[in-house]
Design goal:
This protein is mostly helical. It contains 14 helices and two strands, in the order αααααααββααααααα.
Length: about 350
């Protein structure tokens, strides 16, 4: 089972690795691990520094607040996606679940805040549970299962909204709307909720037995099973968690927009995967960080904001830049991983 030292990218015993100087080998391996873990954070700091020097409006309160709010919803989705990818899986249904959660929350808001929150959590969590059961018990490929769930969730969304012709509104004076539009100490409530969820997620992944099981399943499923990790139950749990996070993000977004917008969520699954991978989590599983996923989300939003600040570039360039950046990150991760194995 993966230890806390290993999950941070620092093997427990590196003193005797390699054929050369053990001290130099140990130092090189640690530097590679640190680059893999904190490379996105360094890039984020550099990007924000360059942007602040290039654009006077970048570090203004309004711009930072808008970036924080727009990042919050994607970050919640990326949080659940992190657990899935660390196990070596993938979840393509989160974009549709995000949109479905928003519509269900807006529809349920007429019956109170509890219904507005619990309904999307129940439905999206149930879909995530079904994904997990099919993947863990029936042993179907995560790509196929979650792709089917993506289409199914979008179908439910269209059925609830009469083929998208009905938009459910949220009462602006309700407590549910305050969850999306309210602020605390000058910071939006969704941002505080996101921060709290990430702190909780980091504790669960790094400090609990369940987190150890997640790493074990992603690192080597057969070895994890031999060491007592409940492989099937862990997979079911992470896909259920991913569905819950997507549904909650959709509900918070509906509270922010005071409506259930049916066209949202297209491509969000790819954004969430990109943010998680950019943050240092390996697509092959067994290695990843909750904090890294948050940094990945922020980095994507900074890149998008810079493109918007330029003004002369079409919004399509956001996708081009994000895709190119993701490709560079994956290549860097692969190189660092091979370098660590060689060392």
């Amino acid at each position: 089972m993966t230890t806390h030292t290993e999950e941070a990218g620092l093997p427990a015993d590196t003193a005797g690795a390699g054929d050369g100087d053990p001290v130099r080998t140990n130092r090189s391996e640690r530097l590679s691990a640190l680059a893999q873990q904190h490379g996105a954070l360094v890039t984020l700091v550099i990007a924000m520094t360059v942007a602040s020097l290039s654009f006077d409006t970048f570090l203004t309160g309004d711009n930072l607040e808008n970036m924080a709010l727009s990042s919050a919803f994607l970050a919640v989705v990326a949080l659940g996606m992190t657990f899935v990818i660390v196990t070596g899986g993938i979840d393509l249904s989160v974009g549709s679940l995000f949109a479905l959660g928003g519509v269900l929350a807006a529809w349920g808001s007429r019956y109170g805040t509890a219904v507005a929150l619990l309904l999307p959590l129940a439905v999206c969590g149930l879909i995530g549970l079904v994904n997990g059961l099919l993947i863990a018990r029936v042993r179907l490929a995560p790509f196929i299962v979650t792709l089917a769930a993506m289409l199914g969730a979008r179908g439910i969304l269209l059925a609830v909204t009469d083929e998208g012709s009905t938009t459910y509104l949220v009462d602006k004076d309700s407590f549910f709307a305050a969850l999306g539009q309210g602020s605390l100490l000058g910071v939006g409530v969704p941002v505080w909720i996101t921060v709290a969820l990430f702190v909780l997620g980091a504790v669960v992944l790094r400090r609990t037995r369940f987190g150890q099981y997640v790493y074990a399943v992603g690192g080597n499923e057969d070895a994890g099973a031999l060491m007592g990790a409940p492989v099937a139950r862990t997979k079911i749990s992470v896909y259920t968690l991913s569905g819950l996070c997507a549904g909650l993000a959709g509900a918070l977004n509906a509270a922010w927009l005071v409506s259930g917008v049916t066209i949202l969520g297209n491509g969000m699954e790819l954004e969430a995967i990109s943010a998680v991978v950019i943050g240092g989590t390996l697509l092959s599983g067994g290695f990843g960080f909750i904090s890294g996923s948050l940094v990945g989300v922020l980095l994507l939003k900074v890149i998008q904001n810079v493109i918007n600040q330029i003004g002369s570039l079409d919004s399509a360039y956001q996708q081009v830049v994000s895709g190119a950046f993701l490709a560079v990150v994956v290549v860097a991760q692969t190189w660092l991983g091979r370098r660590r194995r060689v060392l």
